[in-house]
Amino acid sequence: MESCLESGTVTMKNQKILIAEDDDLNRSNLTELLNAEGYEIKAVDNGRKAMDAFVEDKYELVITDLKMPNGDGLELLKFVKDMNPDNIVIMMTGYGTVDSAVEAMKLGAFDYISKPMRNDLVTLTVNRALSYASLQEENVTLRDHLREQYDFGKMLGYSECMKTIFDTIEKVAKSDSTVIIYGESGTGKELVARAIHFNSNRNNFPLIPVNCGAIPEDLLESELFGHEKGAFTGAIRNRLGRFELAQGGSIFLDEIGDMSPALQVKVLRVIQEKQFERIGGVKTINADVRIIAATHQNLELAVTEKRFREDLFYRINVIPIHLPALRERGADIAILANHFLQKFAQSKKKEVTRFTPEAIACMLHYPWPGNVRELENLIEMLVVMKEDGEIKLEDLPSKIRQFKKETQSFKEYQIPEEGIDFNDVVYQFEKNILLKALAKTNGVKNRAAKLLNLNRTTLVEKLKRLNISSES
Ligand SMILES: Nc1ncnc2c1ncn2[C@@H]1O[C@H](COP(=O)(O)OP(=O)(O)OP(=O)(O)O)[C@@H](O)[C@H]1O
Prior knowledge:
Layout: E1 3-6, E2 9-12, E3 16-20, H1 24-36, E4 40-44, H2 47-56, E5 61-65, H3 73-83, E6 88-93, H4 98-106, E7 111-114, H5 119-150, H6 160-173, E8 179-182, H7 189-198, E9 207-211, H8 217-225, E10 226-227, E11 239-240, H9 242-245, E12 250-254, H10 261-273, E13 275-277, E14 284-286, E15 290-295, H11 299-304, H12 310-316, E16 319-322, H13 330-347, E17 351-355, H14 357-365, H15 371-385, E18 388-391, H16 398-401, H17 405-411, H18 422-440, H19 445-451, H20 456-465
Parallel strand pairs: 3-4, 3-5, 5-6, 6-7, 8-15, 8-16, 9-12, 12-15, 17-18
Antiparallel strand pairs: 1-2, 10-11, 13-14
Helix pairs in contact: 2-3, 6-7, 10-12, 13-14, 13-15, 18-19, 19-20
The protein binds adenosine-5'-triphosphate.
Residues 154-157, 183, 185-191, 254, 296, 336, 372-373, 376 line the site of adenosine-5'-triphosphate.
């Protein structure tokens, strides 16, 4: 990319700008103006088309009108920020109301331009926004470069909380301190443990995982510490335990909260004295092992309920890392979904290209009780079921489909400071629902009535009252 200095700001040419504006004249003026400035422009006339374009291509900047039919500016802003929180968005407002602009800024818009627009102000705002974007990109590239060095492997995350977690991993990896990772099942605790180990000074030695919740208690002790031949019935030869196998490296004690109190004492001794004996053995073995633990439980609560030893808790809770549930990091859902789509499309040799914006929006609102694992499994299933093309809302299982955007955007409906015309809003909402039902049933009123749980006569009366003809 070539860069040049213009009116005190750095302008990066060949950057792409997406414009969403329903006013034809404004749209073409803006396109001409910014084309002349050397930017590559894609201009569309509503929010929905802009969402489609945004999913398909990379745009350094999105400029959107606030009020548009079919996906307004705020909806587009939210969509862009969900897909990529770092993407810069500028709003255009014809209403000059500070309120809507303030709301847009709160939602992450970079700036706003009031209409009627002055060309010099437009170019100034756009150049400023893109200079900022370039600086931001430089920072991200630098950080990504550092991150690559630390080999975060397949672990993705663009949400603020995941960035904080990556920073923590970088810091703690080299420290050799005990780490405990808290998080619901499927949030990526094992991936974090791997990232810590493989970025630590112990990475030439193994990382040995043990799922303390999956191994029966009487076997777990021998799994961890090993046994001598004849230590118990069935111990026909000496066996190394996982602590010994992990010598020089790290041990990942997954679901440590499920460990019995008797074993908790033994693990405490390994941490305090760095020593242990095999079952039935007399020789004391030195343990040079870093402990990385994980649990989905609230260990503090387990301590107060006397299910977990307090002394062990303080020994392992040295560096706690809390992995948020997937539903708490909206920004990651779209990124992870696209990543898994590419991964499975490639491995299963399918031409499944992308998700429609509606499908993504719906996934953003589903609560994902099984977290990233559930998302990964779902996308594998969707790719298997599909031959090619895009994954649409209808392709999603019904438990996810019920979290369609309409429900949510209605929940999120904000009454502006200047108030609303109640009857008009309800009228628009009702009309919208009826039109959608008709579109979904190809205009067949019987089926539309069934879909809405109305009887046919009521539906027909409503259509008449709302002035909806079969053509519409
Ligand atoms: N940030 C992420 N980026 C990419 N893949 C991820 C991410 N987080 C989790 N995964 C994937 O999700 C799946 C579950 O992750 P993982 O096994 O680490 O979760 P967990 O919290 O340890 O689960 P459990 O507690 O059930 O053992 C894995 O296939 C993992 O590769």
